[in-house]
């Protein structure tokens, strides 16, 4: 250790090739110590700010979530102990249509990020079909509404064509309005 990271001035000559390599290694060790000497601050709120976009694929969202976790926490998606955290974050912050499907998964497969990604991809790829069915359903509702309005207008017009009685409503009948 003293050879590569001396505490006293080693008087290395930067013009000598071998000593230049020692200086370079010394610099790299110093930088490594600076980067890793102080523990990384845990900022879990950054993880909860990562939300899947409407057009973002499930894999891209998971990668972005892992990247933020590596940057702002000491959590690692590869570690078994952190797996449940990433599963919870992935399910909770996915798009609403994907989230509804992922909430329904139970059992040991519900804890596997690979299985969740597979289901999320199925939902993501079926979005167009679901959207198409939704539009067809809305069009059917509009058509039904138009047909009912047209039928009501025809019935109403047919009711008006009969003879209209003229005169006071209770003519000839006894009572307060009658003229008997």
UniProtKB/TrEMBL annotation:
List, in alphabetical order, the GO biological process terms annotated in this UniProt record: virion assembly
Recorded coiled-coil stretches: 123-150
Which portions of the sequence form the region Disordered? 154-180
Domain Core shell protein Gag P30: start-end pairs? 3-125
Q: Does the keyword Coiled coil apply?
A: yes
User: Keywords assigned by UniProt?
Assistant: Coiled coil
Q: Does the keyword Coiled coil apply?
A: yes
Q: Which InterPro entries match?
A: Gag_P30, Retroviral_Gag-Pol_poly
Q: Which Pfam families match?
A: Gag_p30 (PF02093)
Q: What is this protein called?
A: Core shell protein Gag P30 domain-containing protein
Q: Which organism is it from?
A: Eudyptula minor (Little blue penguin)
